[in-house]
Amino acid sequence: MAHNKEINVAIIGSGKLGTDLLIKVLRSPLMRCVLFIGRNDRSQGLIQARALGVTTSSNSIQAIENYNGNIDIVFDVTSAQHHIQHADVFKRLGIKAIDLTPAKVGRFCVPSINPDAILHHDNVNLVTCGGQSSLPIIECLAQTIPYISKVEVHSFLAEDSVGPGTIANIDEYYSTTARAIEMFAGVKDVDVRLDLEKSAWQPDMLTHIRLHTAERNLDAIYTPLKKRLIDIQKMVNGYQIVGTPFIQDGVISITVSVHGKGDWLPAHAGNLDIINCAAISLGEHYANSTIMNTVNNPYEQDHIDCLSA
Asked: 233: which of 61, 104, 262, 267 is 20 to 30 A away, CA to CA?
């Protein structure tokens, strides 16, 4: 365990998403990145990490197995196929895993819905970018509206905000998003789509959510929806509901946009920013819980103070 103000984390996956996540981790007062891992020592991500003073490795999962220090959490930013292999290593070494791939190995987690999953499970899965943008709204309405027969989620992304990992895992993207919606909202009829904008126009992430329901009173959803929006914006500043939700022919339609922070990724890549913000939120939630447990355990606090003296 790191000292009582930080937890030690590692990031495996040194692409654009992983590098952006690293910058966000370095900004956190509750996490310290002790290892940033890729497969190509000359990749932009590893070069940037070294410039930021972070210990790096190009030995992939072997770097985790060979690391001599303590790692509390590892963020896996590789691919669904790789995470399935990595998960066994993390479990054997007793390292909590926050999975940013659509591998479906761990417990589905959306910070505005079930943040405590990171406290109770060794491996949590952040679904997909489409899941992180739509599920807070869908779950909120599922708790408010008596019956939803079908859910449609249609995301539009700029082409340069979608990496090769997403393209390679597109089937997993669809199935994982649909399964998470079924779990959180109890709806089995789910249609998930993803379209790329391939022109020079670089739009923010847009996700259209359509819920088929017999509900006719939109006034009932506004208060819980506004509360949920405030909760999400604490984590992702650029998350907005576009226009006003409306209902037509038994379908409630809501559109959300996500504008990123532009740390390492372009700001219009809100799809990538939202899943990284979710990862940071969970890591800090676990760190806060760890710190509080330490404060409430005088023996452990004295032990840490003695070691730090």
From this structure: 104
